[in-house]
């Protein structure tokens, strides 16, 4: 509207259609970047940098394309400034976001490398989320319990449970439920250390094994996870996630998981406290 107010529309003979084609393609690519970011990234600080950087580029490229159709008086520089300023600011914001994305991806790649090595030997992965499955959880928990007892180190478990997940599937469909599980697993994976293990325990339940982590440290980590998982909104649903923390000492792998499950049941019944994550 500002461009139409300040400028005059060019006649078809004055329009350079090759420039229109080139600048139009650039604008469409920028819009595609923005769409991919919105559709594939979970909410968070890195996504915001990528989003606003791409949005500024779209704004700049749009005004650049508009120049091909509208002529502005030489003494009015307003549109020139509005066209030029968003591009470098957007590139800086986009670059900062890409650096954050790169850091996230390095963490995820470490997880994937370990999974790929395991897959060649055992094929113990959950087919949907590509996380370790329950058989691997029992094996690695038994191994780590022996190592940590011998070295007298702490070992903690986090169990995450999605409340009302069956109702969510009935309301929005199985595809939406699968998408939620995939995004949840990716978000959790990006927050882990290389020594941590994330497994899909059952359909709506996940377990994180924290090596060399005391109960107090595990609680701090659970609060950290809380801050990130609250951003995982989906279909404006009423999904909530319970997290319970358990430090493993003298139990076997089976006993440790059973005890953690009992803690989860108690927290859901309101008997014991847990970290409760609103959608």
TrEMBL record:
Short name of one Pfam family: GGDEF
Recorded catalytic activity of this chain's protein: 2 GTP = 3',3'-c-di-GMP + 2 diphosphate
Gene3D superfamilies, per database record: 3.30.70.270
UniProt keyword terms in alphabetical order: Membrane, Transmembrane, Transmembrane helix
Membrane-crossing residue ranges in chain numbering: 20-37, 49-66, 78-101
Keyword Protein transport found: no
Record-annotated GGDEF domain positions: 153-279
Enzyme class: transferase
The EC number(s) this enzyme carries: 2.7.7.65
InterPro entries given in the database record: Diguanylate_Cyclase, GGDEF_dom, Nucleotide_cyclase, Rev_trsase/Diguanyl_cyclase
Keyword Transmembrane: yes
PANTHER family assigned: DIGUANYLATE CYCLASE DGCM-RELATED (PTHR45138:SF9), REGULATORY COMPONENTS OF SENSORY TRANSDUCTION SYSTEM (PTHR45138)
Protein name as it appears in the record: diguanylate cyclase
Organism for this UniProt entry: Alishewanella longhuensis
